[in-house]
Amino acid sequence: MQHYWLTLITFFPLLGALVLLLFPREAAEKIRRAALVVALVEFGLSLPLFFWFDANRSGMQFLERYVWISNPPIHYQVGVDGLSLFLILLTTFLTPLAVLASWPITHRVKEFFVLLLVLEAGMLGVFVALDLFLFYVFWEVMLIPMYLLIGIWGHQRRFYAAIKFILYTLAGSLLMLVAIIWLYIQTGTFDLLALYSLRYEMPGLLSLGAERWLFLAFFLAFAIKIPLFPFHTWLPDAHVEAPTAGSVLLAGVLLKMGAYGLLRFCLPLFPNATREFAPAISALAIIGILYGALVALVQPDMKKLIAFSSIAHMGFIVLGIMAMNVISVQGAIYQMLSHGISTAMLFLLAGMLYDRRHTHLISEFGGLATPMPVLSSFLLLACLSSLGLPLLNGFVGEFLILLGVFEANVVHAALATFGVVLAAVYLLWMYQRVAFGQVSDVNKTLPDVSRRELAILIPLAVLVVWMGVFSPMFTRRMESTTKRILFQAQSPHYQLAESVDTLEAKE
Amino acid sequence: MLDFLWLIPALPLLSAFVLGVVGWRLSKRAICTLGVGSVGLSFAASLGMAWAFFQLAPEQIPIRSSYFTWLAAGNFQVEVGFYLDQLSLLMVLVVTGVGWLIHIYSIGYMAHEGGTYRFFAYMNLFTFFMLLLVLAGDYALLFVGWEGVGLCSYLLIGFYFLRDSASDAGKKAFIVNRLGDFGFLLALFLLFRTFGSLDFDIVFGRAAVLPAESFSPGQAGVLTAIALLLLVGAIGKSAQLPLYVWLPDAMEGPTPVSALIHAATMVTAGIYMIARSHILFAHAPLALAAVATIGCLTAFYAATIGLVQTDIKKVLAYSTVSQLGYMFLGLGVGAFTAGIFHLMTHAFFKALLFLAAGSVIHAMNGQQDIGKMGALRRKIPYTYWTFLIATLAIVGVPGFSGFFSKDEILWRTFETGNQVLWLLALVAAALTSFYMFRLVFLVFHGQARYTPETARQIRESPRVMTWPLVALAVLALAGGWVGIPAALGGANRLARFLEPVFASSHALVQAQGQTILHSHEWELALMGLTALLAATGMGVAYAFYILNPELANNLAQTLRRPYQVLVRKYYVDELYFAAVVRPLHWLSERVFWQAVDVRIVDGAVNATASRARDLGRWARRLQSGNARSYAAWVVVGAVVILSYFVFS
Asked: Do A297 and B588 touch (CB under 8 A)?
């Protein structure tokens, strides 16, 4: 049973999308419900992974491997470790919420939900793929539904934003494709696990020069996705123009793929180049932390503010990864998850306000705590979680990252810690301008949260507190994997005995 | 009994949760019962714990408990667990005891306000975090409480969120505190790097065996760095120079909040944290000197501002800043017990001052300007007498609680050879006496400066408010008797009670300082001097505001410049605005966003895109659909490829 589980959860949304295609175009309500059912079943299917996952094993679990194309040798190879486990769960958790948040969509309902489910399958594929070619396919496949979601269901400047998004990302991924092919020519394989082992069996396989170029090609693709300063300008536009569901999955999941890629490919495959470039990348991350926070401070648009805050928060993650110690990297993985939750919550709330007022401008609101106390309370919780209040999710990741970074570099840690101060400034100021003060006549009659919206917000709120209080439940499952990745990034003689053994046993 | 230690913080937390989730459905009566009852039960539990604690043998202290793991990554681990020793027990009793009285008072004070459930939910949540802060057995957990009380402070300052000034003040408090947290966080990182843990037992155990560090900044080591960073955190939370600016603004919150959070408990968290870290500070003489200097300067500085403020709560706020400065001074000269002693008595008399001030405001229907009060003595007698007792306590009239604690700080400052600091603190004490009696005379004595209609409406507060005033008045009067010094024939029980906690550090500080052991005669003489100065302050206030009310105005006219400087609080808020807030805003908006982001980065991206488009247009011309031109291109291509192979 467990042997096919990953394939099942990866393709189930696709299956759901196919079923959705059978629905008549006019049956909007049925389509919405069907999409919700698919997304919820998918989440249910993914949950067992959490319990089946063996936290003590550092290698890949639930491995599946079939030949896809025999020449060149491309495999359908999927597996999960402590890094991808939570990203998969994050994806399956956020998708039903995104579906629920898309209830108000009335334009081309069928296409919308089909694309949403295709997008989910694509994202899951990225996280489970363990073959470079397969990874690349999923990586590109996922772009298309996101491009369409922004371009068709977006707001006023949606074409500009969609095209900017796709060009930016394509520019990065084309370089990655070249690197993947080059790597294949050098090594004769696309198999990531085989590459992991090769890297240590034949340390001289790649010259340092070649490693540098390969690293840079992969890194650029990931840096754009994260996005790292100065590759970030697609993000604010994409977020502002995207429909709520698009923003949620973009910020919640897509951005994480960049950080995921660093840990999955750059550190283990190009350890020397990573170490060489780490100081420069850390510097960019710190610039991103402070720059993102300062620019967020002056944004008049709520979604843009959240977008710039994402740039700052993702900076923490990159900084944690580049410090390359167990605490900071675990913190970074945790923060990937946590940022997915907090930012999704912020975007969902911004979307709920948009549904009521058709604007994201902060100045249009004010005093919302009076007509909508419940929504304001959730907004406060989301802000507090994002600014890293202890006992909420955001604190754990940031604290671990900073603690780890401090061991590596005091100045980096001090500068990044200052970013924590700034987060309080822009978030609380935003909250004040939205929720406090006298309420204007337009806003006076706005309804408070509906049941559907509560169904979105309560699971998020529970998770925000749960992750903040019981973090070891998550970090313990990341620890072995983190240690393995760091070992790969450092020692040239490490053998992935476990995963290689399992592979041979299966073949 | 002590196995149930978790009950003390859990009760208010539970109540906060219930009130926060279903509070809006409950009746006012149910809300008050829950909100006040939970803290009352928590206080009862604390008394029970205290009783059990006294049965323990000395070697069983501190009590450690552990419930679950909060953080775990690599070799870093934080347990949620408590640490009960004499110091935390005292703090728990103060927090729950004074907190309970303030909760009771709030029933009356908030009776006519909306959102009672919100108020009590926040107050209970605050109590929980404050208890977590003082019971934490680990710096990370202490930080949780530290941030949590900051959050509740934010929420309660902004309780009247319809008023912009209130929400501004809440935000300011949170952000200024975050600046302090910047230091605190770095201290935590450095602690972990140095000791490999944030657990109190491990940190203090490992720090205790290290040698004391040098006083000179060039040679001071990691302990000094840690202590100074912790001090930055404490400065933020306990409103010391230069981060005190949030506390006076925090008076925008309801008055019981000012009493509980901004006088009795939360603002003393910095003092508690330094006292808790006494081993680190005792090893870092430079940091200790910084604590004393900052405290003393703040005590004096805030007192000067307090002289001229006209809002009753603002005067008390500056007075709180000033008194917190005294506590810092006590800690800084190595008299940890004295600092904690003053923390305790201050909790009694300052909570009382605020509650009584609240009762005045309540009676005056929201009026806070002391220029529009006067002659309230007979109209609100309970408030008057309790306010007077608290004033006598803060001023340091012999026999009242503040006398013993403040005097111990002054004496220990003098004794340890810090004559300059001592003199400054002494002057501040005289100033305290002046501004406090100015308040008493302007509010309760002299002429009524309001209309007869207003006068007719003035009523004493209901019993639910006056009863806590009386209880606190008893404490403000007698609370100091646990610490009567030997010079006055007392046993100083409090010092003996706390001695096991601080013994090693007291010894260490004494060993490195140039303590001149003065005699009891000296101590008595200085005591007399302080009392005399307090009386002088009172006398001057009497002359200014009762004998000749014109005198104060005339003086303000003559010394207009310095007077304005004080009224405008040395222009510090304006300075921060001009030097920090505005440039940061400008930098973010004009430079980073509009220049870097939009013009440079996006400009480059768009330029690349249009180059690509031009290229596409050019390439499109090649695709003319004309077969002959295609053929020509094929020939050109073939020639290029051939020449490559031929010539390479």
From this structure: yes
Position A169 scores a pLDDT of: 86
Closest chain B residue to A435 measured between Cα atoms? B161
- Which residue among B171, B185, B585 places its CB closest to the CB of A417? B185
Residues B304 and B427 in one domain: yes
pLDDT tops 70 at residue A434 = yes
Q: How many CA atoms lie within 13 A of A225 on its CB side?
A: 26
pLDDT at residue B647, as a whole number: 62
pLDDT at position A493 over 70 = no
Q: Is residue B26 part of a domain?
A: yes
Between chain A and chain B, the number of residue pairs with CB atoms below 8 A apart is 132
Clarify whether residues B252 and B342 are in a common domain. Answer: no
**Which one, of B91, B502, B410, lies nearest residue B269 by Cα?**
B91
Rounded to whole angstroms, what are the CA distances from B158 to A375, B193, B254, B289? 18, 38, 9, 36
Co-location of B317 and B376 in the same domain: yes
Mutant choice from A338, A425, A486 vs B, greatest count of B C-beta within 10 A: A425
CA distance to partner chain A, nearest, from residue B592 (Å): 6
Residue B292 belongs to a domain: no
> What pLDDT shows up at residue B459?
86
Claim to verify: residue B85 and residue B118 sit in the same structural domain = yes
| Residue B181 Cα, gap to closest chain A Cα (Å) | 8
Count Cα neighbours of B396 within 13 Å in the Cβ-side half-sphere.
32
Same structural domain for residues B368 and B407? Answer: yes
Instruction: Residue B631: count other Cβ atoms within 10 Å of its Cβ.
Output: 10
Structural domain contains residue B259: yes
Q: How far A455 CA sits from the closest chain B CA (Å)?
A: 16
Q: Among B518, B534, B567, which residue terminates a domain?
A: B567
Reading the block at residue A217, the tokens are 């090609």
Do the Cβ atoms of A472 and B144 come within 8 Å?
no
Quick one: B125 and B99 in the same domain?
Answer: yes
Q: What is the pLDDT of residue B282?
A: 92
Same domain, B274 and B311: no
* Residue B290 placed within a domain: no
pLDDT of residue A403: 95
Chain B positions touching A325 (Cβ under 8 A) are: 74
Residue A257: per-residue pLDDT: 94
Mean pLDDT taken over chain A: 90
Q: Decide if B144 touches A, using CB distance below 8 A.
A: yes
The torsion defined by the Cα of A73, A76, A79 and A83, in degrees rounded to 10, comes to: 80
H/E element, A69:
strand A61-69
Q: In chain B, which residues have their Cβ closer than 8 Å to the Cβ of A391? A: 144, 148
Examine the fold and report which residue of B283, B316, B343 is the final residue of a domain before the chain moves on. Answer: B283
List of chain B residues with pLDDT < 70:
513-518, 619-632, 638, 642, 644-648
pLDDT at A400: 96
Interchain CB contact of B115 with A (< 8 Å): no
Grade residue A165 by pLDDT with cuts at 50, 70 and 90: confident
Q: Which of B498, B318, B289 is nearest to B413 (CA)?
A: B289
**Residues B420, B461 share a domain:** yes
Please tell me the predicted confidence (pLDDT) of residue B354.
95
**Segment A31-64, tens digit of pLDDT:** 999 999 999 999 999 999 999 999 998 889 999 9
pLDDT at A501: 44
Indicate the number of domains in chain B.
3
Tell if the CB–CB gap between B73 and A327 is shorter than 8 Å: yes
| B329-341 residues labelled b (16+ CB within 10 A) or e (exposed) | bbbbbbbbbbbbb
Each residue of A110-161: pLDDT tens digit?
Answer: 999 999 999 999 999 999 999 999 999 999 888 889 999 998 998 888 888 8
Q: Do the chains contact at A472 and B151, CB–CB below 8 Å?
A: no
Contact B396, B402 (CB under 8 A): yes
Query: SS3 of A159, please?
Result: helix
Nearest residue of B to residue A430, measured between CA atoms:
B171
B175 contacts in A (CB within 8 Å)? 421, 424-425, 428
Domain of residue B633 covers 575-647
User: What pTM was computed for the model?
Assistant: 0.90
